[in-house]
Amino acid sequence: MTKWRTLVLATVGFNFSFLIWFSFAPFTGPMAAEFGLSTAEIGILASAAIWLAPFGRMLTGWLSDKYGAPTVFAIVLAYVGVFSMASAFAQSYAVFFVERLIVATAGITFVVGIQHVAEWFPEEQLGTAEGIYAGVGNAGAAGGALVLPRAFGPEWSGPIFQSNWRAAFFYTGVVAVLLAVVYYALGEAAKSEERRQATADSATLKQWVHTATRYGTVVAALAYVMSFGLELSMASWLTTYYQRAFSTGDLVLASTFAGTFSIAAGLLRPIGGYVSDVLARKEMNILPVFTGRYREQWTFLSLCFIVVALLVMTAAGLSGVVLVTVVAGFLVGMSCAFAEGAIFAQVPAMFPNSSGSVAGIVGGVGTVGGIAFPLIYSGAVLDLPNLHVGYAVVAAIMVPIVLLNAWVYRPRIAERATVDGFLDWGSASGPEGVPGDD
Questions:
Q1: Residue 421: inside a domain, yes or no?
Q2: Rounded to whole angstroms, how far apart are CA atoms 108 and 50?
Q3: Is residue 349 part of a domain?
Q4: Cα 269 from Cα 338, distance rounded (Å)
Q5: Were 287 and a residue from 75, 122, 297, 425 both cysteine, which residue would form a disulfide, CB within 3.0 to 4.6 Å?
Q6: Does a structural domain hold residue 27?
Q7: Which pLDDT does position 425 carry in this prediction?
């Protein structure tokens, strides 16, 4: 089992997990018509797709360290596939809602793949490898937006279902179960038994609590709220946004507009990781502040890019020109990609023997943005004058997170970010055996 084979296996598994996670997004129109849903209720459904992800990612990250990624990945794909097939037969909205909540846990496979890739790649290649894995994997949302409405069009009339969205949920569930079998059969947990044992030994509750409260973990998690949380929210909301804000009645066209965001957010992510690797390897300072903290400088710039891109998104929407807004959405996706790649170039490098647990914390907390932001976009929690202003509101919420990251990125604090923490919980030494004074 080579490291490249591991990367391909994890990437394919996560790509399809992301596709099935957001397979509901292209079909919100027909589902809303069948179940009688309002715009606010669609926003709640989009938010609900993320509800179980925070806890689920934290748990599966730890389980991946303890029992190995192939076992955990296969289990998640299997039950997600079964419930996706079941949701295709739901006749009441309550049953459908619960079943799709369970299907939405497909997103927790992200941290499993992060851990699997980290167990095989050396530190100098981590940013690039994790960027490829997560970037191509995240593009599964674009696959859902671009492929599913075409494969299961409005005129669908299949052997089992007359409704296109029911057919889509059933057949994607079948593929998920098949992928579970493949992953379990072909996956190997780590490049050596010694590496596997070291990771398993670090998976204790005491160590997890200590790691969760370190400065580096906390600010990475909040930065991931800004980036991946934003990506989740946009992936689940943009099709509805283009339909309702611009009166785009064509579902395929609206899904295509939304898909351009997911393409940028997914396929450009390796660039974020690669740039972080290059800066660290060549010891290049690209900012006059945070001297010597090469990865942190790139992450900070990427976080600032997100805030600016969201403001541009609001301005573009207010212009009333849908194609300008699509371009702005692509820029938002690009900013997410750069920041996500930068963050997960740092995380496994900081915590090499606890990559699953830390990825679970960062990835789990990061999904909170996917829960909260759609409620802002849709006007479910704030009375907005139109559907364009929500992006600017989210940008304002992100400013304190950027400032907190800047505080931790100062060299004196950053060099001890894996040792010192906001709370004096857990062991008195760092998660990788570094002596601490906290």
A1: no
A2: 10
A3: yes
A4: 6
A5: 297
A6: yes
A7: 55
Whole-number pLDDT of residue 158: 73
pLDDT of amino acid 428: 42
**What pLDDT does residue 207 have?**
83
Mean pLDDT of the chain: 86
Residue 431 belongs to some domain of the structure: no
**Cα–Cα dist 90/387, whole Å:** 31
Q: What is the pLDDT of residues 206-242, one digit of tens each?
A: 888 888 889 999 999 999 999 989 988 888 788 888 8
Q: Give CA–CA dist 278/426, Å, rounded.
A: 34
For residue 222, give the nearest of 398, 57, 48, 346 by alpha carbon. 398
pLDDT 10s digits, 357-402 = 888 899 889 888 888 898 888 877 778 888 899 999 999 999 999 9
Total domains in the chain come to 1
Bigger pLDDT: 434 vs 220:
220
What mean pLDDT do residues 134-155 have?
79
The CA distance from 127 to 10, in Å, is 15
The domain of 332 spans 3-414
Q: What is the CATH number of the domain that holds 111?
A: 1.20.1250.20
pLDDT of 77 above 90 = yes
- What's the pLDDT at 1? 57
